[in-house]
């Protein structure tokens, strides 16, 4: 019954407020009238009786409020009233409101952006059914690549996976009847779509029963996006014949929207069967030594643990090693998540994003500390107002409720602004293509998790910084404040706010130090010796795309080199099948000349291998330490020769001098003589340790992959146009991609650049928050000591002494936090060496830059409080007190 009465009273409160108020007024008047009648009967005249009755009854408004609370439903009305009061108060202090909202918007926006990236790439599973049971196979001695025969054995002999699938990434030319266009594809196993339990949007997928040996399944499955953008949602595309690298294929289906394979950042244009890999006269499909299959993965069977699956795979690997000792190395596996190519990309991304999330969380904590300082200073400025409200009968609970309402309102508005800004940024990030040549996208779409986090952070932040002035309100003595004009004194002991401010300044110094270290490291790195010259031009083409194969490829490559050398201003032209710090390096086992058992376990090393033309070293700017380069006479009919780098020479032969003229063996047993020693360089990553590398003549080791390197002093744009025009004369259908050597480093520099940019943005945010925090501390100190400062000035205190009294505490905290942050930044910057090459925190410019930045921030933060302290009018202040 009590519950029903409560809800009934709430209903009357909301739906009949005027009637309820009228009834309450009548009830109160009746109580006063009855008491007045009693007093009249005791002998008082009516006016005095009425006055006494009202005094005994107390304040009517207070009684009304108590009655409202007793009736229930007062909470929402009071909250609305508190919000209105808060809005009026904030309207009187627009600077404070704007600073608080922007501070929180920056912090919550940063956390939202970083969490959205973490949610998209780490937390949220792949957009395939049962993604939680999908695992990729990772060779402990290598990566996720396999040879196709190994994949077939693992697929057919394992007992742990429902279906083991595989795919490879490749670039082809697609001709739909118009001009051929370059497209990125996934060569997928016949069970690819069935193994992922994905169903077609249109038409059908290819299946295992479509495969009948090499080049037996000329089918194309378009991605939904490619079908939408290139075929304009034409349902008649099913059954249409197209040409892929001049070979006829048939479009049989369209994948569902949102499905683009199992790599989160790679969006292929279409899928073809993997058995067609050698359609361009290749020999890789059944070569057990060639690990060209990009990734192998599958769903674990119900009840099978990852550990049991690894044991199963390792037993198969041991059996394959016994059967094919000359083709297989040690085969031991682990299971990884395939969405970020296992540990190769997933590990660094997880560590980097987790670190960013930690830094963003610390920035939010610093923002809360900032706003706590501002709220404390604001409470000190309003101490007289609070004291008067308490003296007039307001409860401390009601005042605190107003404080928290103000804090929560600021937090919600700041959170909304930060969330809106982060959504705009994430939309731009989702359509951004970091590498124009590749279909790579960072698709980050906020979902319910992101919105919930933003709301939670806003509410928790409001409660945190709103709780800072609680102690001030609870300890406010109205009599003392009205009498002295202050709610207390600034003590000399270290407070929690001081500790938070020091930690915040230290965090800012860490971020500033790390960002400067990253910038300087990146600058040093770009000026370092890569083993090649950056002032060259590159022209990449793929002859198989337009039908070249076999012996026609070397002839085309020679024609292209001769044609490019004839361009005015071109000094030299070289050709290579791959580039150092390019899209991916090739490796090959090599053996000592005395080794007879050429199984992989007996290999002397596994160097990077490049197949190059004569004049490549001159064109690329790679210096020869000794020996000679290649000539056109180093063809398939001449003795096998190689140029190796210094690291190769030292590891294989002991020294550079003894390497020249010596022999080593290739995996097929071919003896190869070292005819030249090239300088060491960087081949895969900027931060890698020195690696062995060897160069082979392209006429002795033919390759269809063609990267041409041109040395010239001409303007890159003019030279690029001349290169394109010249190659069109060689073959008008030949696809060409032209770029400078510096732009070709975008892929390997992406990580260092993003780390530098992220640290720079966080450093700027930390600097802003540090300025606000120091300002809050200084303003709070000045507000609490205005009377003391006025007395000092009245007694003839010098400006220097006044400033020292007002700001010494804030300056000391700035110095302490900056020193601690610089020390931590120097230690933390060691981690940057794994991301940014040549990043060193001991650079004098870095240390000087940090000291200068922190000094400027301190000057900016204390400028306004210093002016306020110096502008104190003792007479006016004492008159007000």
Name a few traits of the molecule:
22 strands, single chain, 881 residues, alpha+beta
Report the major sheet.
8 strands, mixed
Helix-strand makeup class: alpha+beta
Strand content: 5-15%
Uncertain regions spanning at least 5 consecutive residues: 487-491
Q: How many angstroms separate the termini?
A: 56 Å
Helix content class: 40-55%
Q: How would you state the average pLDDT, rounded?
A: 82
Overall 3D shape:
elongated
Q: Helical element count?
A: 27
Query: How many DSSP-defined strands?
Result: 22
Indicate the radius of gyration in whole angstroms.
Answer: 38 Å
SSE diagram, text form:
Elements: H1 2-15, H2 17-41, H3 46-57, H4 60-71, H5 74-92, H6 94-123, E1 134-139, H7 148-157, E2 161-175, E3 181-188, H8 192-196, E4 202-203, E5 219-222, H9 224-230, E6 241-244, E7 247-254, E8 270-273, E9 295-300, H10 306-323, E10 333-336, H11 342-381, H12 383-391, H13 396-431, H14 448-466, H15 470-475, H16 478-484, H17 496-526, E11 537-541, H18 552-565, E12 570-576, E13 586-587, E14 591-592, E15 608-612, H19 616-620, E16 624-627, E17 641-645, H20 646-653, H21 656-659, E18 663-665, E19 671-678, E20 693-697, E21 706-712, H22 716-730, E22 736-740, H23 746-784, H24 786-794, H25 799-828, H26 844-870, H27 874-880
Parallel strand pairs: 3-8, 5-7, 15-20, 17-19
Antiparallel strand pairs: 1-9, 1-10, 2-3, 2-6, 2-9, 4-7, 5-8, 6-7, 11-21, 11-22, 12-21, 13-15, 14-18, 16-19, 17-20, 18-19
Describe the structure.
The chain is an alpha+beta fold and 881 residues long. Helix content is 52%, strand content 14%. The chain contains 27 helices and 22 strands. Strands 13, 14, 15, 16, 17, 18, 19 and 20 form an 8-stranded mixed beta sheet that branches. A 6-stranded mixed beta barrel has the order 2-3-8-5-7-6. Strand 2 and strand 3 form a beta hairpin. The protein is elongated and about 135 Å long. It starts with a helix and ends with a helix.
């Amino acid at each position: 019954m009590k519950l029903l009465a409560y809800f009934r009273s709430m209903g009357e409160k909301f739906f009949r407020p005027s009637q309820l108020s009228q009834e309450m007024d009548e009830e109160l008047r009746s109580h006063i009238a009855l008491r007045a009648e009693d007093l009249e009967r005791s002998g008082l005249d009516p006016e005095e009786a009425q006055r006494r009755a009202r005094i005994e009854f107390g304040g009517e408004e207070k009684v009304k409020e108590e009655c409202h609370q007793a009736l229930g439903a007062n909470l929402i009305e009071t909250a609305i009233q508190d919000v209105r009061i808060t809005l009026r108060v904030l309207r009187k202090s627009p600077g404070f409101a704007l600073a608080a909202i922007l501070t929180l918007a920056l912090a919550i926006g940063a956390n939202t952006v970083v969490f959205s990236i973490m949610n998209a790439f780490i937390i949220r599973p792949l957009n395939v059914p049962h993604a939680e049971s999908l695992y990729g196979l990772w060779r402990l001695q290598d990566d996720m690549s396999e040879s196709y025969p190994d994949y077939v054995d693992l697929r057919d002999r394992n007992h742990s996976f429902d279906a083991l699938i595989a795919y490879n990434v490749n670039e082809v030319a697609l001709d739909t009847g118009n001009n051929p266009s370059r497209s990125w594809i996934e060569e997928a196993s016949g069970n690819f779509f069935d193994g992922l339990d994905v169903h077609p949007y249109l038409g059908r997928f290819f299946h295992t029963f479509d495969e009948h040996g090499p080049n037996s399944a000329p089918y194309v499955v378009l991605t939904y996006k490619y079908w939408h953008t290139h075929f304009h949602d034409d349902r008649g595309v099913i059954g249409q014949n197209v040409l892929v690298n001049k070979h006829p294929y048939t479009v049989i289906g369209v994948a569902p929207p949102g499905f683009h394979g199992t790599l989160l950042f790679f969006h292929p244009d279409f899928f073809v069967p993997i058995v067609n890999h050698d359609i361009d006269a290749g020999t890789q499909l059944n070569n057990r030594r060639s690990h060209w299959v990009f990734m192998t993965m599958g769903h674990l069977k119900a009840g099978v643990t990852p550990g049991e699956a690894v044991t199963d795979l390792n037993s198969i690997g041991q059996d394959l090693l016994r059967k094919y000792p000359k083709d297989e190395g040690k085969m031991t596996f682990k299971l990884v998540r395939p969405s970020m190519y296992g540990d190769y990309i997933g590990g660094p991304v997880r560590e980097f994003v987790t670190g960013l999330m930690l830094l963003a969380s610390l920035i939010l904590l610093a923002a809360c500390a900032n706003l706590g300082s501002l709220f404390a200073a604001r409470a000190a400025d309003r101490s007289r107002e609070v004291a008067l409200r308490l003296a007039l009968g307001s409860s401390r609970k009601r005042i605190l409720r107003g404080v928290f309402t103000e804090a929560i309102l600021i937090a919600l508005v700041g959170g909304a602004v930060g969330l809106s800004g982060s959504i705009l940024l994430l939309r731009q990030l989702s359509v951004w293509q970091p590498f124009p040549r590749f279909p790579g996208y960072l698709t980050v779409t906020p979902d319910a998790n992101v919105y919930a986090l933003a709301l939670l952070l806003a509410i928790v932040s409001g409660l945190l910084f709103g709780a800072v002035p609680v102690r001030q309100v609870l300890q406010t003595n109205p009599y003392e404040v009205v009498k002295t004009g202050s709610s207390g004194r600034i003590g000399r002991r270290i407070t929690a706010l001081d500790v938070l401010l020091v930690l915040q300044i230290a965090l800012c110094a860490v971020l500033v130090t790390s960002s400067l270290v990253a910038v300087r490291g990146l600058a040093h790195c770009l000026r370092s010796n890569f083993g090649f010259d950056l002032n060259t031009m590159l022209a990449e083409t793929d002859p198989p795309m337009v039908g070249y194969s076999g012996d026609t490829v070397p002839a085309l490559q020679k024609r292209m080199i001769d044609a490019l050398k004839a361009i005015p201003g071109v000094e030299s032209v070289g050709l290579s099948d791959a580039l150092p710090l390019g899209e991916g390096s090739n490796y090959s086992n090599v053996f000592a000349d005395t080794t007879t058992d050429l199984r992989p376990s007996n290999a002397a090393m596994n160097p990077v291998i490049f197949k190059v033309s004569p004049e490549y070293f001159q064109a690329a700017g790679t210096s020869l330490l000794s020996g000679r380069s290649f000539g056109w006479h180093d063809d398939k009919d001449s003795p096998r020769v190689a140029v190796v780098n210094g690291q190769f020479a030292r590891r294989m032969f002991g020294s550079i001098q003894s390497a020249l003229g010596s022999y080593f063996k290739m995996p097929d047993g071919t003896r190869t003589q070292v005819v030249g020693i090239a300088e060491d360089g960087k081949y895969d990553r900027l931060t890698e340790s020195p690696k062995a590398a060897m160069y082979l003549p392209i006429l002795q080791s033919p390759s269809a992959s063609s990267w041409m390197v041109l040395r010239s002093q001409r303007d890159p744009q003019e030279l690029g146009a001349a290169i394109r025009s010249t190659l069109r004369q060689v073959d008008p259908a030949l696809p060409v991609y032209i770029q400078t050597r510096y732009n070709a480093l975008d892929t390997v520099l992406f990580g260092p650049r993003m780390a530098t940019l992220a640290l720079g943005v966080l450093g700027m945010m930390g600097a802003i928050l540090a300025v606000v925090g120091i300002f809050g501390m200084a303003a709070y100190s000045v507000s609490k000591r205005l009377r003391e400062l006025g007395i000092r000035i009245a007694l003839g205190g010098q400006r220097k002494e006044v400033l020292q009294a007002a700001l010494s505490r804030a300056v000391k905290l700035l110095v302490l936090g900056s020193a601690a942050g610089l020390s931590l930044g120097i230690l933390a910057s060691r981690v940057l060496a794994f991301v940014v090459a040549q990043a060193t925190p001991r650079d004098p410019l870095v240390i000087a830059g940090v000291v200068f930045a922190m000094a400027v921030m301190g000057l900016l933060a204390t400028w306004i409080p210093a002016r306020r302290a110096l502008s104190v009018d003792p007479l006016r202040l004492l008159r007000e007190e």
